[in-house]
Design goal:
The chain is mainly alpha-helical. It has two domains: 3-52, no CATH class; 63-128, no CATH class. It has six helices and two strands; from the N terminus they run αββααααα. The protein has helices at residues 3-10, 38-52, 63-79, 90-95, 102-107, 119-128; strands at residues 14-18, 21-25. The chain has a two-stranded antiparallel ribbon with strand order 1-2.
Length: 145
């Protein structure tokens, strides 16, 4: 059990963990509506625990390790039905002479318009295929449908 999980549970929260990430499960009524005050308590617990427990950084200064993580993401996305263009060579990527992000590849459109993949699908894929840490995409609901 992680320190963050322990901290949140000590504050009465129900913790869910998936893919190395921790979240708080909020209680809902029969209609699926979050019970009054539950979100506020969850936010408060999260804030307290975030201040107390250092974040376990996935980011590494080891560019070779980051390249391997990026390749894992590319392979996972292909398995999920999204084959991408071939990533750059290890040497080019590690040296920094080439920029490449699997999720940037996935979401870019040729005309620079809305994302090529719907936001909900990108969120699902991020759960299944964690992003390598060098480039993390920011999700903005105004960007895509």
């Amino acid at each position: 059990m992680s320190a963050m999980t322990t901290c949140l549970e000590d504050r009465g929260q129900t913790v869910v963990a998936h893919g190395g990430k921790v979240g708080i499960e909020t209680l809902s009524d029969e209609d699926g509506q979050t019970l009054p005050g539950v979100s506020e308590l969850a936010d408060e617990a999260w804030g307290e625990c975030s201040a107390l427990v250092p974040e376990q950084a996935y980011i590494s200064d080891d560019r070779d390790l980051e390249y391997d993580r990026m390749l894992d993401t590319v392979e996972c996305l292909a398995h999920e039905g999204y084959p991408l263009s071939a990533p750059p060579s290890r040497e080019a990527w590690v040296s920094g002479s080439v920029q490449y992000s699997p999720y940037a590849e996935l979401t870019e459109t040729e005309d620079g318009g809305s994302w090529a993949v719907e936001t909900d699908e990108v969120l699902r894929l991020l759960e299944v295929c964690p992003a390598s840490s060098q480039k993390l995409i920011l999700l903005d609901s105004t960007d895509a449908g």
